Amino acid sequence: MGRGKSKNVKTKIIKYQLPIIVALLGALAGLSYWYFIGCANGSCGITANWHTSAGFGTLMGWFLGDILKDKINK
User: Fold this and answer.
1) How many angstroms separate the CA atoms of 69 and 16, rounded?
2) What are phi and psi of 37, to 5 degrees?
3) Residue 10 domain-assigned?
4) Contact between 57 and 28 (Cβ < 8 Å)
5) Is residue 46 part of a domain?
6) For residues 31-52, b (16+ Cβ closer than 10 Å) or e, as one string?
7) Using CA atoms, how far apart are residues 28 and 35, in angstroms rounded to an integer?
8) Rounded CA gap, 8 and 12, in Å?
9) Which domain holds residue 57?
10) Residue 71 confidence (pLDDT)
11) CA distance 57 to 62
């Protein structure tokens, strides 16, 4: 039973390889934006904390990667 689940996870990773890679790049971009530009007074919703900035970058990266995956597969 454990082998089937492992194969299923591997299949999902291969299927979503591009969105995963782009999401990781988005997280890095969000973290870089927070570090280099950030928010001076802390009142910015997305860039006030590193985890919200990286999370937003990850989410946007996933969306972009999923759109690109669909375009490539057409």
Assistant:
1) 8
2) -110, -60
3) no
4) yes
5) yes
6) bebbeeeeeeeeeeeebbeeee
7) 10
8) 6
9) 16-73
10) 92
11) 8
H or E element: which one contains 19?
A: helix 17-36
Cα radius of gyration rounded to whole Å, the chain:
16
- Scan for tokens 């999902």, then name that residue: 12
- Determine, yes or no, domain membership for 11: no
User: Identity (one letter) of the amino acid at 5?
Assistant: K
Contact 22, 28 (CB under 8 A): no
Mind listing the pLDDT tens digit for each residue in 16-64?
999 999 999 999 999 999 999 988 887 888 888 999 999 999 999 999 9
Please report whether residue 24 resides in a domain.
yes
Residues contacting 53, CB < 8 A, separation 6+? 30, 31, 33, 34, 46, 47
